[in-house]
Amino acid sequence: MFGLRAAAIAFYPMYRGLAKLVGMTALSTGPSLSDSLAALREHWGQFDFFFVHYKATDSAGEDGNFEGKVAKLEEVDAVIPELLTLKPDVIMVTGDHSTPSTYRAHSWHPVPFALRSRWCQPDRAEAFNERDCQKGSLGLFAATEIMPLAMAHADRFTKYGA
């Protein structure tokens, strides 16, 4: 996958299977975010790219639990400083789909996307939510652009014709 040694840290079998289908190594983890972080730390030097799936935000949305979804998102927010101690080239935070708690199901709505790299420029996004992220320098874009963005911001983008 993009010439990377890629690993998936996911508890649910579907995500582990999808990771294997695209050539990623599926690493074992428990259901909690702290389990996933432990797996990430354990395997940090062995892979170039990690996909970490966190199901709890989706589950809270499907349950219609707005406060629970906010709490799960805040858990993700709280571990970002710990992730930064690993000195990754790029951190991306997004969802594989939107699950509004008012809708209680997967929806067609855009998902917020945050990207951090030493190559990033400041932009107008002030919060991590659907509306503020659209104001950012990336705006709305197709999911097929995520890996090229990651590679470019890791300074590993393959240049063509230059």
Automatic annotation (TrEMBL):
Ranges where the Metalloenzyme domain occurs: 27-151
Pfam family, one: Metalloenzyme
Keywords: Glycolysis
GO biological process: glycolytic process
Reaction it catalyzes: (2R)-2-phosphoglycerate = (2R)-3-phosphoglycerate
Similarity section: Belongs to the BPG-independent phosphoglycerate mutase family. A-PGAM subfamily.
The name this protein goes by in its record: Metalloenzyme domain-containing protein
Source organism of the structure: marine sediment metagenome
